[in-house]
């Protein structure tokens, strides 16, 4: 029977406020940055904004509210089914009629008028599954260290689904979150070292089997070697950020959004945001992410339930790591990965998933009467 957590009050309002502020900034930025490409592709200035509000924000708020209200332990028995359903959706991306490819990557599923990216949902469903599994180990008084090899096996299975698409950016985020969760439940030093070495080995292997990744890495190190090819994206992002100065050129006044900066409404949103709001706006955005991270860690620390702790740790690791990967790639300190900026970039699948994650965090943060 469905259980609502009605005997608890006072969720973390600072966490809620930081999430609302990030979503609000995302809407404001998208309203300005998407006008050119919306008009060009659909003849409607606000196509992408309306799409984000109706098919991203609205369902995300509804599902996030349900995640906030329903007793967290109610989810646990259904988590394996959620993960299996998500993996099934991951397979659909390879079907000729249903699946869709873009830029050589098979990541989207089209069902009638609805399109979505299953790998975005996987970030949350895998965190829930791993949290439940690790918590069961801890609650059963078994050493988490004894689960090291099964943990590696689970990571390998998930990795195969993502490598085949390929979606290395999402893979990196999921692996980082999983490692953070595992070592919040275990303190084995040798396992830490072993996992780092294994991760480096896998990274080298992924670069070797796909030469374009090696080219991307080389251009990242020396963008001037291919200024109109692979280095063009980074160059235009840096131009946008530099054009913003201290105070920015003003909301909606970006020049890079007029077809100069690739993926201006999705992966490159931060660069446009920095151009329009300047250094001060960029610092504000980073502070909001740090505030979100601080409250997430506080939620995990104050909760005594192992499952809830791990869910909070996994979600915070995922969202903040993804945010700084995106920002790092825009300012040229990391290679371009193609991952969106949480709460800010255009994309209904990732916004829905992030709002559900916030609902779960607020659920965990509630204090008993």
From TrEMBL:
It holds the Pfam family FTSW_RODA_SPOVE. It catalyses: [GlcNAc-(1->4)-Mur2Ac(oyl-L-Ala-gamma-D-Glu-L-Lys-D-Ala-D-Ala)](n)-di-trans,octa-cis-undecaprenyl diphosphate + beta-D-GlcNAc-(1->4)-Mur2Ac(oyl-L-Ala-gamma-D-Glu-L-Lys-D-Ala-D-Ala)-di-trans,octa-cis-undecaprenyl diphosphate = [GlcNAc-(1->4)-Mur2Ac(oyl-L-Ala-gamma-D-Glu-L-Lys-D-Ala-D-Ala)](n+1)-di-trans,octa-cis-undecaprenyl diphosphate + di-trans,octa-cis-undecaprenyl diphosphate + H(+). It comes from the Bacteria. The keyword Nucleotide-binding does not apply. Keywords: Cell cycle, Cell division, Cell membrane, Cell shape, Cell wall biogenesis/degradation, Glycosyltransferase, Membrane, Peptidoglycan synthesis, Transferase, Transmembrane, Transmembrane helix. It is an enzyme of class 2 (transferase). Belongs to the SEDS family. FtsW subfamily. PANTHER family: CELL CYCLE PROTEIN (PTHR30474), PEPTIDOGLYCAN GLYCOSYLTRANSFERASE FTSW-RELATED (PTHR30474:SF2). This is Probable peptidoglycan glycosyltransferase FtsW. It comes from Candidatus Nealsonbacteria bacterium CG23_combo_of_CG06-09_8_20_14_all_39_17.
